[in-house]
Amino acid sequence: MGVGGKLRELAEARVLWSNVYRVRTFFASSYEISESFRSYRLLSFIAKYSADLYELMVDSQSRNSGLVLRIKYNRKLSPGVVAHVNLLAAMNIIAELVDDVGRDRGFFAALFASYKSLSRDGLVSCSLTFSRSPTRLYVRPAAILLISGQATGAQSVIKASKGLAEEALEALRATLAKYKREYLDVLNSLEKPKPIAIVLLQGKALSVEEIRAVVSDGSEYREVKIPIKNPEWSVEDLPPKIVEEVKLIVVNPFKSGLPFATKGAFITGPPGVGKSVMAEALANALGLKVVELKPFTYRSMWYGATEKMLNAIMNQVYRRRKELAVVIDDAEFLSSRKYTIHEAHLSELSTILYHLQRSDRPFTILTANNPDLVDPALLRPGRVDVTILVGYPDKEMRRKALLRNASKYRVRFASERVVDYIVSNTSWYSLAELDALLRLAASRGSGTVGLEEVEWARRRVVVSPTERRSIQDYLRWWSTKVQGIVITYVPTEVEVE
Q1: d(Cα 253, Cα 242) in Å, to the nearest integer?
Q2: CATH number of the domain that 411 lies in?
Q3: Nearest to residue 345, comparing CAs of 318, 374, 321?
Q4: Do residues 119 and 164 share a domain?
């Protein structure tokens, strides 16, 4: 896979001097440089990893480690823009890193090569940045590769990276031999380069589906992007005892487009029992995608800015309310007004109450570990019509979750007896703890779980049955005083044990 030791149809060759760093750079490109805001955005993205690149450069002579970054772009990046990224990086990020490493070593070199494909003529541009003049021969440059233009698999690029780096250095050597012969001694003193990082630019990539909201007020400009998720869980992953009830009360009226269908649900229970899973499964059953509303995405330190951003986000959601469900996970931050003392939190709560009151609101799902902390006004009928109480799983649900997770992790059981043993000896476990037990046992058994592995793992999972009985009793008591429709999955002590 050679390029014949030269850059195909050389468009530009430069020797660059830095006024800030004690480095010099050789740069060559097969394409005319095209300056674009996209190249500056790419440079800023790569700059976020400069600390990692520095560590890799320092250890490049002694350790086999590396970094692979994948950047997706909606529009195809032209070779000229990719060449400009190379030039910018060589003059800024790479120059600073080489200068820092070179201060300790006396001499250091880094190669930055850009390819539009893995083919023999895919080289776009390359640069070599080095500190001072070499004080010793046979220095091995650290190489960074930038691959663009195709959905290239990371493993295939890693395998090809050594050859690509060597080709780029040979191409640069051939260019200097023709245009800048006085600098050939530097390249001739270098060993074959070692790739330490690969940046994959995937042109024409599918964009991540998201909600975008912008608030501009005087000197302040804020943009928030919230990903839209496709639910991974289905209604069949819910406890079998409440599946039909959930379909009857929530799913069927909503999917039939009936005007009286519920438009919100509140899911509560102790940590680890599957509330977030249930929220996704419910959205999936309704045929909706998920937008997670988290406080850190919209809150601001400035007075009034939180409410403006929250309104902007919800206005974007309203436009797609027929295809989106809003999920507010861990809704305790919407605490009851009798506990809230800060004016900003009261205003935030009032804004959410307003949106939940609107007749054109999207389907909204709230989850909470402690329902007493959530403002009761959020949970009243007309805003959130249905409350689903989820307690610790019974034997039937534990078996269902255990077999599902074993299939997911490709875990093998030594015998069917092992499954029965786990189900019988995990009373009062949450689903999260049951999942952790399975993974722990599978780790010890290298993918196969027997009775010995289960007992070893059980000794490392601490569960208090007394405490969890009281939590289960509390949920039953709370179900008697909540407003609206209640769907309860709180197994009795006999069902759990």
Answers
A1: 16
A2: 1.10.8.60
A3: 374
A4: yes
pLDDT digits 0-9 by tens, 101-121: 888 777 888 999 998 877 767
Q: What is the Cα–Cα distance from 155 to 273, expressed in whole angstroms?
A: 38
> What does the pLDDT look like over 303-354, one tens digit per residue?
777 888 888 888 888 888 889 999 988 888 776 655 655 666 677 777 788 8
Q: Please provide residue 457's backbone torsions phi and psi, each rounded to the nearest 5 degrees.
A: -70, -35
What per-residue confidence (pLDDT) applies to 61? Answer: 66
* pTM recorded for the entire structure: 0.59
Is the separation of the CB atoms in 286 and 255 below 8 Å?
yes
Q: Residues 56, 143: contact at Cβ < 8 Å?
A: no
Domains in the chain, number: 3
Reported as a pLDDT band with limits 50, 70 and 90, residue 207 is very low
Task: Write the DSSP symbol of residue 248.
Answer: I
Q: Which amino acid is at 6?
A: K
> To the nearest whole number, what is the mean pLDDT of the chain?
85
The sheet with strand 109-115 has its strands ordered as 12-17, 23-29, 123-131, 109-115, 142-148, 194-202, 67-72
Helices (H) and strands (E) in the chain, counts: 19, 17
The model's pLDDT over 236-263, given as tens digits with 9 standing for 90+, comes to 889 999 999 999 999 999 999 888 899 9
Q: Per DSSP, what are the bridge partners of residue 407?
A: none
In a domain, 302, yes or no: yes
